[in-house]
Amino acid sequence: MEASLRERVTRHALFAESIRAFFQARGYTEVDTPALSPYLIPEPAIEVFQTKYLPARGPARPMWLIPSPELWMKRLLARGSGDIYQISKSFRNCDFGGPYHNPEFRLLEWYTVGVGYLDSIQVAEDLFAHLLDRTAPRRPASELSPPFVRLSMEEAFHQYAGIDLARCQDPQVMKAEGQSRGIKMPDSPTWEEAFHIVFLTLVEPLLPREKPLVLLDYPALVPTTARRRPGTPWSERWELYVDGIEIANCYTEETDPGVLRTLVRREGERRRDCRTAHAIDPDFADLFPPGFPVCSGAALGVDRLEMVFAGEKSLKGVILFPFSVILDGQSDTHA
Question: Does residue 335 surpass a pLDDT of 60?
Fold first, then answer.
């Protein structure tokens, strides 16, 4: 094996081993959940890979490759597993283009019982400190070391777009805000569509890049399984950006079955817009028993994290077999 390839393979393995060592030292249990499933979480915005199971008897049954291990990890969590984590292969079936996407990728997901989304920021900061110590990053440690910068979504809209997000809870108002700033908007966007257009055009490109950034308190009008902050229009959610690249997503998990049933119903209606509409777990809304304690879940893109630690500008610098290489039929690995 050539020296440069050997170095990449070794670095690739060490990165995952260091993540596992961090969570094991903190008392989390590593789990291994299905990558092939007859149903998924209610997340219609994600295009998925569909296949078929061919039983010995009876008709073929549709199956999907998971876009994240969330569903099966929550089933373990709800049954009393305690704090758990895993590094799984996950799949998203869409060509986004650019250097930060690959249809098959490694996803670190962890769940902590008894804490909320703000507590999980500390876990992420401690993980970064651990990786800085264990993996010898190819860039100044000061660019990755905690504490992270914290900024609410409301503050970000005000600072970088001059928009009062709390007053823009109607789709036409959000559309008008975008149009007044020169953004071409759809004729009748949903609130979520208008929000994302404005965010991706005006706000995200200007987010601070000097240090890792936690973007807090997303609008509750963006449907997720994050718990809503009582008395506010925000959800208990954050995303982590490094070098302007979204690395992680975290919630205080919603466990109220009534709220989850409403989410499943609404998201089920939106699946019709997907090219690969998938079945939703029929038991999803009732997974958690009454009185289940507060818990927080986070999902972090391992390949993206390794990329920024390695000082690479593309996932091709860390994934041993990028999808483009597979499509071209090449058998070797190269950046």
Answer: no
